[in-house]
Amino acid sequence: MRINDDCTGCGVCLPDCPVAAIHEQGRRAYIDEDECVECGVCLRMSNCPVDAFFQTPESDRWPRVLRKQYSDPSVPHPHTQGVGRGTEEMKTNDVTGRFKRGDYGMALEFGRPGIATRLGDVEKATRALAAVGVHFEEKNPVYALFENPATGAFKPEVRNERVLSAIVEVGFPVARLPQVLAAVKHVAQQISTVFSLDLITRFEPDGAIAVLADLERLGFPARPNAKINLGLGRPLID
Amino acid sequence: MTHSLHRQGSIESLQDDYVFIARTIAGFNREGCGPKLQAIRNILCDVGISNTGRMDTGENMTNGLTEAKLRADDSAAPIIAAAVPSRANMREIIRRVQAADFGISITVSGLIDEVVAMCRELGVKPHTVNLSLGVHGKTDLLPQEDCLALTTMCGHALIATNLARQLREEVAAGRTHPQDAARLIAQPCICGIFNLVRAEKLLQGGDRQQT
To answer: How many helices (H) and strands (E) does chain B have?
Structure first.
């Protein structure tokens, strides 16, 4: 994204940027293109009185095009052909049975909330998680970044691209939870951004969430709010 | 997509903050789902929601999407997402959707104890849970918690901290009405799960007791 010479320096656009990449200099605004994640919020907000924002052809060229693909949820991702930046994860688990008893799903939502991330930081997580034997979700957009999913290595040219969020989605057997959380703890110390962490599990037949005590013991207590699939889809997989 | 999972704020303010999602899936229940989804949209309108949106047009209830448009929409979109401003409304929406037996997957984001209690009251057997295990990494980069309570209502992270902070200051100074400020902050959230009612309360009263 760029701002053309029509800019009057009114400053109205400055607060709109989710990554604070719009700056003022010499009575006009400009965008720090290295920081810009091409999310399109400044353009969609339409606050500019002279319509000075425009997208450049560079924003559609590899590897910069990744910024838009991972930051603007209104743009269908080429890997998933869907909007949003992840997968259906557990939203349809009552009919797909993707997450089974005996397994956990986990997501590391890099850059959220509101900090953004270089893809190189995301790769630190994929490498650490690959080393403890998780299964990477192939339908997730992050899978398209791999040079080698077995090691978690990304294509080298993507590492410096900056995106609003990138969600690492993995699955693993219940017994491996301590090793996976240890890897997550290690990753948290190595990165220059943040990630929000999720764990997906089935309700027990009696309605309990069995993993809560283990999470507490391992130093990752669950927050009081969650997302719950009500089991109203049909045909239901029990 | 886990964009409704990590909403922050006090237990008190989260008690009036739910996200309803209806999700179809190709090969299972998407084919011919248009009329069912339209019926769900009508239930949402009848009971009362505080926001919804359309990813394809970028509209939410602050920038062009209206109740009339919502009721007229019979498209087979893969997803309906809406912010629900109270436990009573959330419970009633679940009751009506369950009774209609659409066969479409429904998820509800909110306080675990409240959602599970609603399910128990209605005879619904919850299937799968996505737990939020917090924010990790360089957390000293995060903004103040009163801003996070607002910005995390857009899980795609499209709401700028600076925008939330500026409007919070304008409300505190009496220059902007909380309702107007909430609508301005909500604009970038194109899937419409930003809870306008909760935002207005947060802007009016603050939210010091964090989870």
So the answer is: 9, 6
